[in-house]
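INPUT
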Amino acid sequence: MAQTLCGNPTTFKTDIAIIGAGAAGLAAAVSAYDAGVHDIMVFEREDAPGGILKQCIHNGFGLQRYKEELSGPEYAHREYAAALQRGININYAATVLSIEPNTTLRVLSPEFGLAHVEAKAIILAMGSRERTRGALRIPGTRPAGVYTAGTVQRLINLQGIVPGKEVVMLGSGDIGLIVARRLVYEGAHVKMVLNRSHFSGGLRRNIVQCLDDYGIPLRLLQTVTNVYGRDRIEAVGVSEVDKPTKQAIPGTEERVSCDMLVLSVGLIPENDLSRAAGISLDRGSQGAIVNEQYQTSVPGIFSCGNVLHVHDLVDFVSDEGERAGRSAAAYVQNEGAPEQQTATTRIVPGNGVGYVVPQLVTPAAHDDLLLRFRVRDIYHKPTISVKVDGETVKTFKRPILIPAEMVEIHLNAQLLAGHATAEIHIEAGQNS
Amino acid sequence: MSKQEIRHYVCVNCPVGCDLEVTVTDGVATQVSGNACKRGIAYGLDEATDPKRTVTSLVRVTGREMPLSVRTESPVPKKLIPECIAALREIDVTPPINIGDIILENICNTGVNVIATKEIN
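OUTPUT
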């Protein structure tokens, strides 16, 4: 073993290499296996499968996929059991260092040292990371006690550590709301949840069941403009926010004492590996640009789950993993049929749409084309319209669209054939 | 004379989030308005009469640093959540534990069992 660690890298050859054993990676592995490709290697940097689900001990998972309401660990266990049953090779504590040319990975692990994994296809399933204080540029001192919501969730649920007792939360994303309730259960006092914009990024259900149920005030149009304390955080400055400009209003700062500031201000797909490998990324989704096969700009590399775009429900992550897994298997079985990049249709986010996945549709697309996207604002009784060359070819009516929920539409790909671009627009309903 | 009051709730069945007005007459929820669909009626009546929630929490594991995640098998009355949390705080479990193992029977006399949601070998 020592010789392996210090000597030349080990070389593995496999059909499909998958980065990440969370919901997306496990579903991709299982579906690729079921599509007939059995030589699969999954690389997971942690010591257990499940990704973020491990720490999501609350319920609400699996209503779509399993038709019952499960906690995160239970959902993860089912996905893992499916991989285990098929004997899929999952390597733990295995960190992928880089994606090299010719669908090769450089991987480091205590078990095999440095390895080159020569694959025929790669599936990116690395998930997402949280935005931090640095991303928000909050002024003030740099004391201990400023955490992201997911870190607090991990400390409490996986390590049994409650890192604060008097809590102010900034941002009301779903993870933050769930963590606020968790903190209450562990005996902490959550003083308030601040939200810079005039609507919460979290689901209504979570606001009711995590904040209202416990009397935690949600303060809209307020934000943190200062952090006080030298070694440990002592207080934050809370200011009102001007709605049109979204800027803090000078002179409105109120000092609120606390021993912890929790940030729940959004997730970013973790694409450091993809970026370094030269994979084209979408500024809207912050994930790879993919076609309907979930194939990225680099042939043979596929992407799915939160590393492709941030999802609201894990059920959709699993579904996307399956789609990417099947595509990767087909790619391997067809020995990398060349892409017809010239005849693709580009899907462009129009009015009110943040991004659309997939961004490209090839002539090989099946009739039933699934598009997923997020809207930028709240729309009551809107119309979703698909336009090619300025002409509306398909419309969808919805009772409501909100930024917190991902939107799905199914489209006949024939409608797009031969067109260079198609735009997705949201038109507000009569009463919004 | 019967005593009537109006209580306000936000329906959580879907993202529309209807603002519900529930009429409570002599402590009994009798009428729901403001709902866009019939799911709102059931939700409004439940919230005004006996709101229920699934409780998810942690219990200590003897000899381990990592706690065990647990949940109630079905929703329990919302007003009993603090008692349920307190009851779970008193528990120590010993591995091995499988998903679905009953950790606490009939928590706070709700008739609902608390089950493990994680495997510990």
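end of record. Chain B has a mean pLDDT of 93.
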